[in-house]
Each structure stands twice: as structure tokens, then as C-alpha cells.
Amino acid sequence: MLDARHAISVTERQRFILRVRTMARDVATAYFESRKAEGFPMAPESLRRELLQELLADQGDD
């Protein structure tokens, strides 16, 4: 919308989109980490076990 109204330049628009993408990624990562810390309490039991096993295996590879 801002681009259609010529309210911001192409460079500013690209920078804005990058900031939004970065913020969205950071929020998603923080949410995942908070759910992981809780043991994925809202996930079905089978999925929860699978996720926790994968995460433990990944930690063992480090």
C-alpha cells in the first residue's frame, strides 16, 4: 500500500520488508523455544514424543 501511494522509496520498502521478516523470524524462534521449554504441552502426545526425541538427538550431535 505504501508503495502504491508512493509514500516510500523502493529502498525504504525493501528495508521495511526485511525488518518485518527478521522480526517475524525472531518471534517464531522465541515462541518455539518457549514451547520447547514447556515440553510442547499443547501438542498431541505422539507428536510431542517425536519432537522431543528429535531435539534430544540434535543436541547430542552438537
TrEMBL record:
<dbReference type="GO" id="GO:0005737">
    <property type="term" value="C:cytoplasm"/>
</dbReference>
<dbReference type="GO" id="GO:0006426">
    <property type="term" value="P:glycyl-tRNA aminoacylation"/>
</dbReference>
<dbReference type="Pfam" id="PF02091">
    <property type="entry name" value="tRNA-synt_2e"/>
</dbReference>
<dbReference type="GO" id="GO:0004820">
    <property type="term" value="F:glycine-tRNA ligase activity"/>
</dbReference>
<dbReference type="GO" id="GO:0005524">
    <property type="term" value="F:ATP binding"/>
</dbReference>
<dbReference type="InterPro" id="IPR045864">
    <property type="entry name" value="aa-tRNA-synth_II/BPL/LPL"/>
</dbReference>
<dbReference type="InterPro" id="IPR002310">
    <property type="entry name" value="Gly-tRNA_ligase_asu"/>
</dbReference>
<dbReference type="InterPro" id="IPR006194">
    <property type="entry name" value="Gly-tRNA-synth_heterodimer"/>
</dbReference>
<protein>
    <recommendedName>
        <fullName>Glycine--tRNA ligase alpha subunit</fullName>
    </recommendedName>
</protein>
